[in-house]
Structures are given as C-alpha cells and as structure tokens.
C-alpha cells in the first residue's frame, strides 16, 4: 500500500475528510465523539500526513486530538491551499471539494509538521490576542467620540474608561504569566535587553513566534513577512515586496523597531545609511525590522543579550 495523505476541512460543527490517492471522503462531527470516530478510521490507513487549514481556532482541538492519537498533523495557511486549488483548476467550492484539495495539497507539497504549543503557550497567546482586541476597541471608540451626539457621548466615554481598566488587568495577566515560567523568564530577559523591546512585544514574540531562535535568518524573516520577494520575469525586473507572514507580529515589531532606531546607535546608523542611499522610508523601515528580527532570533538561539558593536576610533 502506498503513502496515504489526508485533508480535513474544518468548520464549527463538522469535519469533512478526504483521503489521497484513494479519493475516499466522509464527514463527522467537530466534537469529542467525532474525534474518536475519526481516529478509529484513520489509524488503519496509517496516513503519512494529515493537513488542516488554520480556521480561526476551530482546528486547534482537532489538531491536539490527532497528535495525542499518534497522527502526524500539519496546520497550514488557507491561502496556500486556495492558491494550490486554483493552480490545479479547482474553482468550485464546497466543504467536500475543499477537503479533497487539502488532501492533494498534502500529497504534493508535504508541509512540515510543527509541534503544537503547550497549554501555557496557548493561554499566553489567548491573553495576547485579547489585549490586541481591547486596544482595537479603545481606538474605535476614540474615533467615534469626536462626532458623537451629546446623548451618547457620556456612554462612549464610560466605555473607554472601562476598556482601559480591562487593558490594565490584561497587561498584569501577561506579565504574571511570563513570571510563572522559568523558560519564559529567560527569554524575557534576553529579549528585553534589546532596545525598543518592551513587555508587550516580548509577550507577543514568545506567544506568537515559538519558532524564534530555532530557524535561520532567511526562514524567520519569511515566517513573519519581512523578507522581500523578487517579482522578475524574463527581462522585466519588478519591485521586490513583502507579503504574507504573521501580520499581528509584524505590526508589533514595527513599533518596536521605531523605538530601536531612536535608542540604538547601530540601528540608527543602519537606518541613516539606507536613507542616505536614497531608499524610500518604508523600504528602510522594513529593512530595519528584518535586521531587528534577525538579531532577536540570534539572541535566543545563542542565549546572548543585545550588544552594540564596538566603535573603533583611529588616530588621525
């Protein structure tokens, strides 16, 4: 029997399962009973790989159940599967068809499985996401306030005050969570030694980039989405642009890099050198973000704190 690959389309209530190359398909409930039934059918097949799309958290319990059951699982970006489907001529869309495309994607691409985050990391990730939501709600309410009529202005102001109190509570939860884990405390000390890296950025990197310190410089830059990609064809040389990656992490890294450029002599010199070469400001900032990320990656890999390069002054 050849290698077997499985694709599962995950929705809130149902799992649609497809097997490649046999073409077998079936459905089951997205709950504990459904997971047990799914494992019972998958184990005799001994799949080489099961692939799920990241679907806003609905895939997490299933991925955990499959991993505990001894099944190799990879969770992938839905855009990758969607582009693969278009490339193979699959334009129609149903849950069953999506599962079949995922199964063929698993067989053709064979994405690398990554270990699932532990319960503590999942909890930290949830608090980081909640903090982000609170900040977005505060911003939205602040934008509504200037044009609000008098009858609702007081209500908006009270809501803003409540949201800010909740934000302070969530920040405390974040920092307390970091202190509970010895490993996170070590990572925090290393990351906080870098200019511009505060507690929020530290929590975001620890929770949302567990690969930090484990990948090489090219892979970590591509993972976050700060690696420019070529757009060349024949004699045409297109503009290199960044795309994809983890947008929320990239936004946090952007703010940290702005602070680092002001505080770090080496980062400021790098910024000024690119700016003096005539590079657009956005290009310069992305380059600084990439440099910052690569240095943070190396710091966690080597267990080293941030060090500014020693400037050698030669006598005239």
Observed structural traits:
5-stranded mixed β-sheet; 3 domains; two-stranded antiparallel ribbon; alpha/beta; single chain; Nucleotidyltransferase, domain 5; 58% helix; 316 residues; 12 helices
| Span of the ends, CA to CA | 76 Å
* Shape annotation: globular
Number-wise, the strands total 7
Sequence of strands across the biggest β-sheet: 3-2-1-4-5
Gyration radius from CA atoms, angstroms: 23 Å
User: How many structural units, i.e. domains?
Assistant: 3
Reading the helices and strands in chain order gives EEEHEHEHHHHHHHEEHHH
* CATH-assigned fold name of the largest domain: Nucleotidyltransferase, domain 5
- Give me the number of helical elements: 12
Report the uncertain regions: 312-316
From the 3D coordinates, which CATH architecture of the largest domain would you assign?
Answer: 2-Layer Sandwich
The CATH homologous superfamily of the largest domain is named Ribonuclease H-like superfamily/Ribonuclease H
Describe the biggest sheet? 5 strands, mixed
CATH class of the largest domain: Alpha Beta
Which structural class fits the helix and strand makeup?
A: alpha/beta
**Percent strand:** 5-15%
What is the share of helical residues?
Answer: 55-70%
Chain-averaged pLDDT: 87
């Amino acid at each position: 029997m050849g290698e077997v690959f499985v694709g599962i389309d995950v929705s809130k209530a149902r799992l649609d399962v497809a097997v490649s190359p046999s073409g077998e398909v079936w459905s089951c409930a997205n709950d504990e009973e459904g997971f047990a039934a799914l494992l019972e059918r998958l184990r005799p097949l001994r799949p080489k790989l099961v692939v799920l799309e990241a679907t806003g958290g609905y895939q997490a319990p299933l991925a955990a159940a499959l991993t505990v059951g001894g099944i190799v699982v990879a969770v992938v970006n839905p855009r990758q599967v969607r582009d693969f489907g278009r490339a193979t001529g699959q334009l129609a869309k149903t849950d069953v068809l999506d599962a079949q495309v995922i199964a063929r994607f698993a067989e053709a691409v064979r994405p690398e499985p990554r270990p699932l985050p532990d319960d503590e990391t999942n909890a930290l990730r949830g608090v980081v996401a909640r903090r982000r939501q609170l900040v977005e709600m505060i911003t939205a309410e602040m934008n509504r306030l200037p044009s609000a009529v008098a009858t609702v202005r007081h209500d908006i102001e009270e809501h803003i005050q409540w949201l800010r109190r909740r934000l302070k509570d969530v920040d405390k939860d974040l920092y307390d969570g970091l202190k509970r884990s010895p490993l996170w405390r070590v990572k925090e000390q290393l990351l906080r030694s870098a200019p511009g890296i505060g507690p929020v950025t530290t929590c975001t990197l620890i929770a949302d980039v567990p690969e930090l310190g484990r990948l090489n410089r090219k892979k970590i830059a591509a993972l976050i989405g700060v690696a420019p990609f070529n757009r060349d064809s024949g004699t045409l040389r297109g503009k290199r642009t960044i795309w994809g990656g983890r947008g929320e992490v990239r936004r946090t890294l952007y703010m940290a890099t702005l602070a680092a450029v002001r505080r770090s002599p080496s980062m400021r010199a790098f910024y000024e050198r690119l700016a003096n070469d005539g590079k657009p400001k956005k290009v310069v900032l992305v380059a600084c973000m990439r440099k910052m990320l690569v240095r943070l990656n190396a710091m966690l890999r080597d267990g080293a704190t941030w060090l500014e390069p020693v400037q050698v002054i030669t006598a005239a």
